[in-house]
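A quick aside before the break. I want you to see a complete sequence-to-structure record at least once, exactly as it would be stored in a machine-readable document. Don't worry about memorizing anything.
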Amino acid sequence: MARSPLRIEVTKKDQKELRRLLAGGVQQVRVVLRALALLQLAQGVSAPRIAGMVPLTAQAIRKIGHRYQQDGLERALYEKERPGAAALLEDSQKQRIIAMVCSDPPEGRARWTVRLVAEEAVKRRLVPRVGRETIRVLLLHHDFKPWPIPGREARRDNEYERRGTANVFCAVEPKAGRHFTFPTPDRSAFEFAKVIFELALQYPHAETIHLVMDNLNIHRRKSLTDLLGAEVGGEIWDRFTVHHTPAHGSWLNQAEIEIGIFSRQCLGNRRISDLKTLRRESRAWNRRMNRDRTRINWRFDRKAARRKFRYKQKAFTRSET
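That is the input. The structure line, written in tokens, reads:
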């Protein structure tokens, strides 16, 4: 059954106002379209025909007409003012969060992030709950950028006391969200052997431990046998099934992602003065990551690799000889 045409009577005063509105001046596009539709309805044109001339649906045009009949011209052209959402944070809560962000970040973290601020605000009972977007807006309103440490960085000249360098071995079980970091004074075979021994202790009931790592010269059985002897060192090494990454494909290694996360979140741009402090900060970062069971969302699976490298299953044939 065909819908009966909508009959709208627009007063001459309102028609004059509509033409004045369309004659010039800056108006929202939606207001102009509604004014055009309303003038056409006043001339008896059906909603489907108007929809063919202006980018509005017939249903939207009928709604404009009904709003004019019920509430007048102002309501037909303009939206109702919507009340703003209730404030999510009280002034006192905002002040406490800003004060927290102006202090040093938690142990194990080099800088404040939006996620960290939200977590710490709830953990320290500054607020019962808060979302990251609320924190982001709050920091922006106080001229804080959420990504670096809020406030002005300390200025230093070029003179500093060099206290040497250190090394950090990183390991991760990506699907379980287990993270291991081992700060050491150097990257030697001796230190690597101790790391492997410690990793073996973390999985006492595993029949084998699959270990993916690059082709560094210390990543070998000899490192353990030199430290622990051929029998004990060989026994510990044999608990691992070692997978060395391709010579030009270390970017496939999820450990690279782990190293990047640790470097950004724990180390940042700060200088840590001694190995003892580095180990303390590293342990704090590990506790937080393992408590949250932070996993690596690895999507580069076998199918994706075959697509990436255009692998064809029958790209070669066996020799008949």
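Two observations worth writing down. The chain has a mean pLDDT of 83. Residues 91-141 form one domain. We'll return to this after the break.
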